[in-house]
Amino acid sequence: MQGSANWFLLSALVAVGGWMLGLRLGRNGNPSVGRVGIAVGIILLGTWAWLVRNPSVAVQVIPVSILSMVEGIGAVPIFMLVIGIAWSKSQQTRQKYVVGWACVLGTVYFLHGGIWMLQTTPKESLASEVDRGQYVRQTQYYSCVPAACASALNILGIPTTEAEMGVLTDTRPGSGATMLRAMNGLRKRLATTSFTVELVAPDYNQLKLLPLPAIAPLQFEATMQHMVTLLEISSEHVKLADPTDGILYLNRNEFEEYYLRKVLVFRHKN
C-alpha cells in the first residue's frame, strides 16, 4: 500500500497546487491571463477525458506505471486550476457559492477515484495455489482481474496464482482492479520472461488475428465490467474462460454486444 498511498498524497498536493495556481492566475492584473487559463484548462480536461476513454492511445504517451495510478483522478488538478481562477474572478456571493460547491464536488470525485490507493490487497482472501487446470476461478466477487490474468499466464506456461496477481494489479476489496492496473501488474510479472503485454483496441475482425490467450473486459452489466480470458476466436463464435462461470461459448453477436474493444495481448519480446 505504501507506494499507492504516496501516489495519493502526491496527487492531493498537485490538486492543491492547481487550486493555488488558479487563484494566482485569476488575480493577475491582466484579465486575459485568467481567460486563457480557463480555456487551456478546459482543453486539458477534454484531452484527459478522451485519453481515459481511449486507453490504448493513452499508454503510448503516458507510462502505464503512472497512468494506472492516476486514471481515476488525473482530471482533478486541472479542474481545481479552473475552479481557482473562477473563484478569484467571482465578485458576487452567489458566484462564490457555486464555485465553492464545484470545489466540493471535485474533492468528492478525487476521493471516489483515489480512495483505493489507501486500501490494501486482501492477499489472504485470494487463492494462493496454482490451478492445475490452468483456468483460475475468482474466489471473491471483485477478483475477476487477477483471476483472468493468472489464467492467461498459466496457459502461457508461467505459473501464477490469483493472490500473486491480486497484489501486482492492486486489486482492492469492493472495487477490484482496472484494465490499466491489470496491464501494469502483468508487465511486472512478465519482466523476467520472454513475454510482454500490450493494450490494443481491435474490432472483431482484427481480434481474430491476435495471438491467444488474451484478456478483455466485457460489459455484462451496465455499471460493471468483467474481465475474461479469450481462448479461441472464429468468424462465428468466441471461446473464453470466465473467472466466475468457467468456459463459455458466445456467438459473434452475443460477444460483440458485450465487447468494449479493449484487449491485453501477449507478445514475445524482440
From TrEMBL:
Coiled-coil residues: none
TM region positions: 6-26, 33-51, 57-86, 98-118
Keyword Ubl conjugation attributed: no
Gene Ontology terms: biological process: proteolysis
Keywords recorded for this protein, A-Z: Membrane, Transmembrane, Transmembrane helix
Gene Ontology MF terms: ATP binding; peptidase activity
Peptidase C39 domain sequence ranges: 138-266
Record GO cellular component, one term: membrane
Protein name from the UniProt record: Peptidase C39 family protein
Organism annotation: Poriferisphaera corsica
